[in-house]
From TrEMBL:
Cellular location(s): Cell membrane
Domain Signal recognition particle SRP54 helical bundle as annotated: residue spans: 47-128
Official protein name in the record: Signal recognition particle receptor FtsY, partial
UniProt similarity note: Belongs to the GTP-binding SRP family.
GO molecular function: GTP binding; GTPase activity; signal recognition particle binding
Top-rank taxon, per record: Bacteria
Topology within the bilayer: Peripheral membrane protein
Organism: Buchnera aphidicola (Cinara curvipes)
Domain AAA+ ATPase: residue ranges: 142-322
A Gene Ontology cellular-component term: plasma membrane
Segments forming domain SRP54-type proteins GTP-binding: 143-344
One record GO biological process: SRP-dependent cotranslational protein targeting to membrane
């Protein structure tokens, strides 16, 4: 048993070394990656392609290396398993992907690696089959509310501003609610970014009850006939019960104005911390009706596989992704574009 564990971690170590070599190689050959801006579709693809190049290069070349072997045997499946785990797909998602892949190959009697790699890509697409239609049909009499939650350090406040900017570009009026009243820096940051990008911010004094801030901001949004109200919240440690209870209190305030189908609760997750994001999502989704997620810090990370775990294990759709620090580094998540950019194999 100890020998098997040793061999497993030895293989992971080999993959880690390969990753470092591949990343080094592609830093010198960035000119091989080009973006086609002739259409909006190509611009979207290029956006993903450039932002995810570190993860994509490592994963793509590793996949190609695995499927370069002519014979599809147990060794290939083991290498795939190691690669998926290393790329933060998680144990559960890895098992599901490999199981579907084996069934598909057996059913179609696939023996050629060139065909098998396309089947593998299809299985990854199937893992992301949950679709979330973002509601942009705003009721003229009531603002559409988006409550944004997440732990400290995931880039929640800046993500909220990006989300607001995104909707403003669509012609919507947006109001931000400074629901994080525990830190003066949080209120100041939101107001500062609001001024920078011409986005209105509703705030109250430091130490105010967050639920009362939310209540007043909803009334303010209704009075001003705002299309979308986006609520910031304090960075919640997902294992702190009293902080989760505060979020539940805020949620009850929103429910006084809305049915659950008329507002969203988005969870912001950091792709860079891999499976820790999944653990955070489990706690939040157990206590709140999380309707979607926003994945941040996808730029240059080798842990893009965490998206598969969020879909597969928790059935939480990924609605938006952030792949950089610019205000425009924010897009609606598209599974086909993500897979094409992440793999770029066929």
């Amino acid at each position: 048993m100890c020998s098997k564990k040793k061999n497993f971690f030895s293989r992971l170590n080999i993959f880690s070394k390969k990753k470092i070599l591949i990343e080094s190689k592609y830093k010198e050959k960035n000119n091989l990656i080009h973006s086609d801006k002739s259409t909006s579709k190509n611009q979207f693809f290029s956006f993903f392609k450039n932002s995810l190049k570190t993860a994509k290069d490592f994963f793509t070349l590793s996949i190609k290396n695995i499927f370069s072997e002519k014979k599809l045997d147990k060794r290939i499946f083991k290498k795939l398993e190691n690669l998926l785990l290393l790329s933060d797909f998680g144990t559960s998602s890895t098992k599901k992907i490999l199981s579907m892949f084996k069934i598909a190959i057996k059913k179609k009697n696939i023996t050629e690696s060139t065909v098998a790699i396309k089947i593998f890509k299809k299985q990854l697409l199937n893992m992301l089959k949950i679709n979330k239609k973002i509601d942009r049909n705003i009721n003229s009499s009531m603002p559409f509310v988006i409550l944004v939650v997440g732990v400290n350090g995931v880039g929640k406040t800046t993500t909220i501003v990006k989300l607001a900017h995104y909707y403003k570009k669509l012609g919507k009026t947006v109001l931000l609610s400074a629901g994080d009243t525990f830190r003066s820096a949080a209120i100041d940051q939101l107001i500062e970014l609001g001024l920078k990008y011409n986005i209105s911010v509703f705030s109250k004094s430091l130490g105010s009850d967050p639920a009362s801030v939310v209540f007043d901001s909803i009334q303010n949004a209704i009075k001003k006939k705002i299309d979308i109200l986006i609520i910031d919240t304090a960075g919640r440690l997902h294992n702190k019960n009293h902080l989760i209870q505060e979020l539940q209190k805020i949620n009850r305030v929103i429910e006084k104005f809305y049915l659950t189908s008329f507002y969203e609760i988005f969870l912001v997750l950091d792709a860079g911390i891999g499976q820790n994001s999944v653990q955070q999502a489990k706690i939040f989704s157990a206590n709140l009706n999380i309707t979607g997620s926003i994945i941040t810090k996808l730029d240059g990370t080798a842990k893009g596989g965490v998206i598969f775990s969020i879909f597969s294990d928790l059935l939480i759709p990924v609605c938006y992704i952030c792949t950089g620090e610019k205000i425009t580094d924010f897009k609606i998540f598209n599974r086909k574009n993500f897979i094409n950019s992440f793999l770029n194999i066929c």
